[in-house]
Amino acid sequence: MIVRVQTGKYGKVCFFDAGEMPLHGGDQVIVESETGEAFGVVLCEPQFPAVETAQRPLRKVLRVASGGEAEKHRRNSELENHIFDFCLAKIKERSLPMCLVSVQCLFDTAKAIVYFTADGRVDFRELVKDLVHRFRMRIEMKQIGVRHQAKMVGGLGTCGRHLCCASFLGDFAPVSIKMAKEQNLSLNPAKISGMCGRLMCCLNYEFDYYEKARKDLPKVGKKVNTVYGTGKVIRQNILTERMTITLESGEEKEISFDDIIREPAPQKNSSS
Prior knowledge:
- This protein is of the alpha+beta class and 272 residues long.
- The chain has 8 helices and 12 strands.
- The strands form 3 sheets. A 5-stranded antiparallel β-sheet has the order 2-1-4-3-5. The protein has a 4-stranded antiparallel β-sheet with strand order 9-10-11-12, with no helix packed on it. Strands 6-7-8 form a 3-stranded mixed β-sheet, with helices on both faces.
- The radius of gyration is 28 Å and the shape is elongated.
């Protein structure tokens, strides 16, 4: 059986081999990771692996987290807050051109990862020395982009819901301005940009449907023969598969796809 587990505050949601463990959503577990043991939370009930998942080896769920391990995770969270506050003070003291985003400690507290954003390269060597001297552990500085910053910080989108990247998206999919055009959305950057200043991830959700549905509808500007007469398409509504046309009389008419008169396909001449 396999389960989906999220490790760390901002870790990717991955499948893990749970074996025969009776796990449930919300259970705290210890899993294998690239850096050793990691603390994670089960996000769903165990399930049988799909074919593509079963064909690749998965890291294992080692055990259900004990009370002591859960307490250790809580102490790690407090340590992350202490490192964050100290690091932020040192950044201001040294006037470093960087924005501190978050701190994440490995479960064994052998290393802390400091996430930050910056417009360019930053010389943080002295900052690392300050952190190592204060906390006596390995420090890794990791520069991230604005989209990952939004994922870590979180917030509410223009829809009023929690940011997709901070709530359920595991990876960022490519998003282009073409997706907004295909869905007849306003190209005003303020309306199609997310909290991070980049194009909203949700532009990608319905794009495939719009692209497929648009192929069956006459393009804007094309003349069509309808049961109401000949007209020119001036607007489309992809979701309802309806369009607005201007008739030769100048009247605007909203019609459905079924109102179009289709000319029969020309028949090929049979060879004698």
